[in-house]
Amino acid sequence: MDSPTSMPPATTNPPIDKQHEILEESGASEAPIEQDPSSSSEGAVGGAAETDGGDEEEEEEECGFCLFMKGGGCKEAFVAWERCVEEAERDKEDMVEKCYEVTTNLRRCMDAHSDYYEPILRAEKAMEEEAARELADQEGSPPSSADVVVVIEESSGGGDGK
Q1: Alpha helix ranges (H) inside the chain
Q2: Are 156 and 15 in contact, with CB atoms under 8 Å apart?
Q3: Which residues does the UniProt record annotate as the domain GCK (predicted)?
Protein backbone atom coordinates (compact mmCIF):
# COMPACT_ATOMS: atom_id res chain seq x y z
CA MET A 1 0.00 0.00 0.00
CA ASP A 2 1.40 3.39 -0.96
CA SER A 3 1.42 6.14 1.59
CA PRO A 4 1.97 9.85 0.87
CA THR A 5 5.53 9.56 2.17
CA SER A 6 6.38 6.75 -0.24
CA MET A 7 5.00 8.59 -3.26
CA PRO A 8 7.73 8.89 -5.89
CA PRO A 9 8.98 12.47 -6.14
CA ALA A 10 9.02 14.54 -9.30
CA THR A 11 12.26 13.00 -10.50
CA THR A 12 10.42 9.84 -11.55
CA ASN A 13 7.93 11.54 -13.85
CA PRO A 14 8.82 11.01 -17.50
CA PRO A 15 9.46 13.92 -19.84
CA ILE A 16 6.47 15.35 -21.67
CA ASP A 17 7.33 13.53 -24.92
CA LYS A 18 7.42 10.21 -23.07
CA GLN A 19 4.09 11.01 -21.41
CA HIS A 20 2.52 11.26 -24.86
CA GLU A 21 3.75 7.71 -25.50
CA ILE A 22 2.34 6.60 -22.13
CA LEU A 23 -1.07 7.95 -23.07
CA GLU A 24 -1.05 6.17 -26.41
CA GLU A 25 0.12 2.87 -24.89
CA SER A 26 -2.43 3.04 -22.09
CA GLY A 27 -5.32 3.55 -24.48
CA ALA A 28 -6.41 6.69 -22.64
CA SER A 29 -6.07 8.70 -25.84
CA GLU A 30 -9.04 6.76 -27.20
CA ALA A 31 -11.27 7.74 -24.28
CA PRO A 32 -13.79 10.48 -24.95
CA ILE A 33 -12.51 13.81 -23.72
CA GLU A 34 -14.94 16.36 -22.44
CA GLN A 35 -13.46 19.79 -22.90
CA ASP A 36 -14.90 22.94 -21.42
CA PRO A 37 -16.25 24.89 -24.43
CA SER A 38 -15.18 28.17 -22.82
CA SER A 39 -11.56 27.02 -23.01
CA SER A 40 -11.46 26.35 -26.75
CA SER A 41 -8.88 28.93 -27.80
CA GLU A 42 -7.94 30.41 -24.46
CA GLY A 43 -7.37 26.98 -22.90
CA ALA A 44 -4.16 26.36 -24.80
CA VAL A 45 -1.02 27.01 -22.85
CA GLY A 46 -0.13 30.60 -23.49
CA GLY A 47 -3.59 31.41 -24.83
CA ALA A 48 -4.46 32.53 -28.32
CA ALA A 49 -2.22 35.60 -28.14
CA GLU A 50 0.94 33.50 -28.27
CA THR A 51 0.06 31.42 -31.32
CA ASP A 52 1.65 32.73 -34.46
CA GLY A 53 0.61 30.03 -36.91
CA GLY A 54 -3.15 30.31 -36.72
CA ASP A 55 -5.52 27.47 -35.93
CA GLU A 56 -3.22 24.73 -37.20
CA GLU A 57 -0.44 25.62 -34.72
CA GLU A 58 -2.97 25.87 -31.90
CA GLU A 59 -4.25 22.38 -32.67
CA GLU A 60 -0.69 21.05 -32.46
CA GLU A 61 -0.38 22.59 -28.99
CA GLU A 62 -3.50 20.81 -27.81
CA CYS A 63 -2.37 17.24 -28.34
CA GLY A 64 -4.44 14.27 -27.21
CA PHE A 65 -2.37 13.86 -24.05
CA CYS A 66 -2.88 17.52 -23.11
CA LEU A 67 -6.60 17.35 -23.81
CA PHE A 68 -6.88 14.21 -21.70
CA MET A 69 -4.96 15.76 -18.81
CA LYS A 70 -7.06 18.93 -18.98
CA GLY A 71 -10.28 16.92 -19.23
CA GLY A 72 -10.03 15.70 -15.64
CA GLY A 73 -9.99 17.39 -12.27
CA CYS A 74 -6.32 18.39 -12.52
CA LYS A 75 -6.52 20.87 -15.38
CA GLU A 76 -5.06 23.78 -13.38
CA ALA A 77 -2.25 21.65 -11.93
CA PHE A 78 -1.42 20.29 -15.39
CA VAL A 79 -1.37 23.76 -16.98
CA ALA A 80 0.98 24.99 -14.23
CA TRP A 81 3.23 21.96 -14.79
CA GLU A 82 3.16 22.40 -18.57
CA ARG A 83 4.12 26.08 -18.28
CA CYS A 84 6.97 25.23 -15.91
CA VAL A 85 8.34 22.57 -18.26
CA GLU A 86 8.14 24.94 -21.23
CA GLU A 87 9.92 27.69 -19.26
CA ALA A 88 12.65 25.27 -18.16
CA GLU A 89 13.20 24.10 -21.74
CA ARG A 90 13.17 27.65 -23.09
CA ASP A 91 15.59 28.93 -20.42
CA LYS A 92 17.72 25.74 -20.55
CA GLU A 93 17.15 25.10 -16.85
CA ASP A 94 16.98 21.78 -15.01
CA MET A 95 13.31 20.84 -15.33
CA VAL A 96 13.38 18.44 -12.39
CA GLU A 97 14.73 21.07 -10.03
CA LYS A 98 12.69 23.99 -11.38
CA CYS A 99 9.39 22.12 -11.60
CA TYR A 100 9.64 19.85 -8.56
CA GLU A 101 6.83 21.58 -6.66
CA VAL A 102 4.35 21.81 -9.56
CA THR A 103 5.13 18.21 -10.53
CA THR A 104 4.45 17.07 -6.97
CA ASN A 105 1.18 19.05 -6.95
CA LEU A 106 0.14 17.49 -10.26
CA ARG A 107 0.96 13.98 -9.05
CA ARG A 108 -1.00 14.47 -5.83
CA CYS A 109 -3.95 15.81 -7.80
CA MET A 110 -3.81 12.85 -10.19
CA ASP A 111 -3.71 10.46 -7.23
CA ALA A 112 -6.73 12.23 -5.74
CA HIS A 113 -8.55 11.85 -9.09
CA SER A 114 -7.22 8.38 -9.82
CA ASP A 115 -10.55 7.22 -11.25
CA TYR A 116 -9.96 9.50 -14.28
CA TYR A 117 -6.15 9.46 -14.43
CA GLU A 118 -5.78 5.71 -13.75
CA PRO A 119 -4.46 4.86 -17.25
CA ILE A 120 -1.66 7.42 -16.88
CA LEU A 121 -0.86 6.43 -13.29
CA ARG A 122 -0.75 2.75 -14.27
CA ALA A 123 1.57 3.45 -17.22
CA GLU A 124 3.84 5.64 -15.06
CA LYS A 125 4.06 2.87 -12.46
CA ALA A 126 5.03 0.38 -15.17
CA MET A 127 7.73 2.75 -16.41
CA GLU A 128 9.06 3.23 -12.87
CA GLU A 129 9.21 -0.54 -12.38
CA GLU A 130 11.03 -0.98 -15.69
CA ALA A 131 13.52 1.77 -14.75
CA ALA A 132 14.13 0.05 -11.41
CA ARG A 133 14.72 -3.27 -13.21
CA GLU A 134 17.14 -1.62 -15.64
CA LEU A 135 18.99 0.02 -12.75
CA ALA A 136 19.18 -3.29 -10.94
CA ASP A 137 20.43 -5.03 -14.10
CA GLN A 138 23.18 -2.43 -14.40
CA GLU A 139 24.15 -2.93 -10.76
CA GLY A 140 23.70 -6.71 -10.84
CA SER A 141 21.14 -6.88 -8.03
CA PRO A 142 17.42 -7.62 -7.92
CA PRO A 143 15.16 -4.56 -8.30
CA SER A 144 13.76 -2.98 -5.19
CA SER A 145 11.44 -0.02 -4.96
CA ALA A 146 13.20 0.91 -1.69
CA ASP A 147 16.44 1.33 -3.65
CA VAL A 148 14.73 3.75 -6.02
CA VAL A 149 13.26 5.79 -3.17
CA VAL A 150 16.64 5.97 -1.41
CA VAL A 151 18.36 7.16 -4.58
CA ILE A 152 15.67 9.77 -5.15
CA GLU A 153 15.69 10.97 -1.55
CA GLU A 154 19.47 11.28 -1.59
CA SER A 155 19.32 13.42 -4.73
CA SER A 156 16.58 15.70 -3.41
CA GLY A 157 18.88 17.53 -1.01
CA GLY A 158 19.69 17.11 2.62
CA GLY A 159 17.54 19.70 4.32
CA ASP A 160 19.89 19.79 7.31
CA GLY A 161 21.15 23.26 6.37
CA LYS A 162 24.73 22.23 5.58
Answers
A1: 16-26, 54-61, 64-71, 75-90, 95-98, 100-112, 114-139, 145-155
A2: no
A3: 61-135
Let me know if residue 5 belongs to a domain.
no
pLDDT tens digits, one per residue of 93-150? 999 999 999 999 999 999 999 999 999 999 999 999 999 999 998 887 555 555 555 4
- The structural domain count of the chain equals 1
* 24 exposure class (CB count in 10 Å sphere: 0-12, 13-18, 19+): middle
Cut 0.70: pTM above it: no
Which residue range(s) make up the domain with 19? Answer: 12-29+49-155
Q: Round to whole Å and give the CA distance between 124 and 142.
A: 20
Which are the contacts of 119, defined by CB distance < 8 A and separation ≥ 6?
23, 26, 27, 28, 31
